[in-house]
């Protein structure tokens, strides 16, 4: 009998039954001990090409972008991060930070460790939203957001009335991720999206092969924002083994930068909705884990739920088109 108790005790001990909180300032997200095995396999360092953004990525935060996002509601046709005047709507490297003017590269976060501090004004619900987004990265990837304690490079999460925006990758020193309240902290996917930029990812529809998957309807694009639909240069991009992903939290919505409430982008295959902001998709998770060379990844992925036929003949087709668990390409 006592061996049963010993076994049970060992089970709880080894299975990481309780969550270990990180030390720190109260912004922390619990990490189950099991996650600690999910360490980086390799240094996870490297550069990120941002050349297709050109000079557009460099600028200053604007109040006008904030006014647009202030008008955003959950019933708006587009996502709030598609309302800014920044490169592709929400990519901004504040000017004084761009060392030597325009750089065509930024960096990954060494070891997948991202020091962060929340300095914006958020209510409890909004702070929880940010925490839940960070918890998703901890659960599904080997990235670790750790409380800022004087590290050289870190993220500060702000809430200024300048819209939703972030730099792409690590630019060095203090870098802002702005989540205007309430527009940018209403949906978890918007928080995940801006953090994915800071982690090092671009928009899904700027992939070089996107014209095989979506139609861009230039007639409906607001004049002056056509640049936001530019594609990356094939030779400078890395798809991290994940094929084009309609479910990506990094995909524009169908009405992004519309001048007339008509679609600006639509999938070539019917039945998909673009621009979900519920959670990371399986492709998003896999890309992060491949960029940062994580050994394993979590399951229970929200971004694909309700969008992905998982059973029956349709599910079979889905799996073969968009990949179940195999790495494509
Ligand atoms: C933007 O708004 C802030 C706060 O309302 C104000 O202090 C600042 O001067 C404005 N900036 C510009 C460029 O108008
Ligand atoms: C925000 O909405 C108000 C009222 O609906 C409108 O007058 C204003 O032009 C809008 N601002 C922007 C920047 O879209
Ligand atoms: Zn974005």
UniProtKB/TrEMBL annotation:
Annotated cofactor note: Binds 1 zinc ion per subunit.
Domain Peptidase M12A: 100-295
Enzyme Commission number: 3.4.24.-
Gene Ontology BP term (one): proteolysis
InterPro entries: Astacin-like_dom (IPR034035), MetalloPept_cat_dom_sf (IPR024079), Peptidase_M12A (IPR001506), Peptidase_Metallo (IPR006026)
Residues the entry annotates as binding Zn(2+): 193, 197, 203
One GO MF term: zinc ion binding
The protein's enzyme class: hydrolase
Signal peptide segment: 1-19
PROSITE patterns: ASTACIN
Active site (catalytic residues): 194
Entry keyword Signal: yes
Keyword terms, alphabetized: Hydrolase, Metal-binding, Metalloprotease, Protease, Signal, Zinc
Cofactor(s) demanded: Zn(2+)
UniProt protein name: Metalloendopeptidase
Organism lineage: Eukaryota, Metazoa, Ecdysozoa, Arthropoda, Hexapoda
């Amino acid at each position: 009998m006592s061996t049963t108790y010993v076994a049970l005790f060992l089970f709880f001990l080894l299975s990481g039954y309780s969550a270990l909180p990180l030390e720190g300032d109260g912004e922390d997200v619990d990490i189950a001990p099991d996650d600690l095995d999910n360490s980086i396999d390799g240094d996870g360092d490297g550069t990120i090409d941002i050349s297709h953004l050109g000079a557009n990525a460099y600028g200053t935060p604007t109040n006008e972008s904030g006014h647009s996002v202030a008008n955003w509601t959950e019933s708006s046709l587009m996502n709030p991060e598609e309302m800014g005047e920044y490169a592709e709507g929400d990519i901004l490297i504040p000017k004084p930070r761009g060392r030597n003017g325009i750089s065509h590269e930024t960096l990954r976060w060494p070891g997948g460790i991202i020091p962060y501090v929340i300095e914006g004004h958020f209510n409890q619900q909004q702070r929880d939203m940010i925490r839940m987004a960070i918890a998703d990265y901890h659960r599904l990837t080997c990235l670790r957001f750790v409380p800022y304690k004087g590290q050289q490079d870190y993220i500060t999460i702000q809430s200024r009335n300048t819209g939703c925006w972030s730099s792409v990758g690590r630019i060095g020193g203090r870098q802002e991720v702005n989540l205007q309240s309430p527009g940018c902290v209403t949906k978890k996917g918007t928080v995940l999206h801006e953090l994915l930029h800071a982690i090092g990812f671009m928009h899904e529809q700027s992939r070089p092969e996107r014209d095989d998957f979506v139609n861009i309807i230039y007639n409906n694009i607001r004049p002056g924002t056509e640049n936001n639909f530019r594609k990356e240069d094939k030779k400078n991009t890395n798809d991290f083994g994940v094929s084009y992903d309609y479910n990506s939290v990094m995909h524009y919505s169908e009405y992004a930068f519309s001048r007339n409430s008509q679609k600006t982008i639509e999938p070539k295959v019917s039945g998909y909705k673009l621009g979900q902001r519920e959670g990371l998709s399986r492709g998003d998770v896999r890309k992060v884990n491949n960029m940062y060379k994580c050994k394993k990844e979590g399951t229970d992925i929200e971004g694909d739920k309700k969008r992905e036929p998982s059973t029956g003949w349709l599910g079979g087709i889905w799996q073969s088109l968009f990949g179940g668990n195999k790495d494509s390409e």
